[in-house]
């Protein structure tokens, strides 16, 4: 599944700034992961997606907890560009796409590898 970097960055920067309608689930935590080492910085305030082939690539890990009443329901990701671009280094460049994956073992603490 691919989404634009701008869309994901916008959602992740805005998650704590918007009111949550009852059917919307907000992330429990955001964490950043350095691709070259696997180091995780757990529970950060903002997300980051960085890939340039020169310095360490950074990805953002987003953890959700789904309540029992969501069982057997479907979900969709909805990303919207926001007005908080001053928090970001600039508009996305390159392919401006991201991949979304699921994990059986979500991040729950910082690591060095």
Automatic annotation (TrEMBL):
What's the short name of a Pfam family annotated to this entry?
Answer: But2
Which intervals hold domain Ubiquitin 3 binding protein But2 C-terminal? 54-112
Give the keywords, sorted: Signal
InterPro entries hit by this protein = Ubiquitin3-bd_protein_But2_C (IPR018620)
Signal peptide start and end residues? 1-17
Q: What is this protein called?
A: Ubiquitin 3 binding protein But2 C-terminal domain-containing protein
